[in-house]
Specification:
nuclease; two-stranded antiparallel sheet; elongated; alpha+beta; HNH_nuc; hydrolase; 5 helices; about 140 residues; 2 domains; binds zinc ion; HNH; 6 strands; four-stranded mixed β-sheet; endonuclease
């Protein structure tokens, strides 16, 4: 098992090696030594952000209008996308998996006929991209 530290050094439940590597590869954690990773985010806060995003989107997949119980990162985590609600969309498992790490604009074009509120969705994508650019500059 791998020891896990919170962003402020607090010790969390240990995890398996695979999970530790997944967090590190997604730029969500760093290795402190060969048996310890430190998270670069607060997992408790992330849970709250997810909940807030799902509630805001009424548990409806914004890509296709079906029931949405997962959150999709508009800017993917692998590209440094934030875990804050502005970067999260409620999504069904299928859309979340199908889109993968593709840019949100590309998936929007593919799904535009099905999206229940396509203009609002485009607005959200643009907003997340603007936020992302601003965060990079600061
Ligand atoms: Zn969907």
């Amino acid at each position: 098992m791998i020891n896990v530290l919170n962003i402020d050094g607090q010790r969390l439940t240990p995890c398996v090696l695979d999970r530790a590597w997944r967090e590190v590869n997604r730029a969500r954690a760093v290795w402190i030594d060969e048996q310890t990773i430190q998270l670069l985010y607060n997992p408790f806060l992330y849970r709250e952000y997810r909940k807030a995003a799902l509630k805001r989107d009424r548990y409806t997949c914004l890509w296709c209008g079906r029931s949405g119980t997962t959150v999709d990162h508009i800017i993917p985590s692998s590209k440094g996308g934030s875990d804050r609600p502005y970067n999260l969309l409620a999504a069904c498992m299928e859309c979340n998996t199908k889109r993968g790490d593709r840019p949100a604009f590309a998936y929007w074009r593919e799904k535009v006929r099905f999206a229940p509120r396509r203009v609002r969705l485009m607005y959200r994508i643009v907003k997340a991209n603007v936020h992302h650019q601003l965060n990079r500059l600061s």
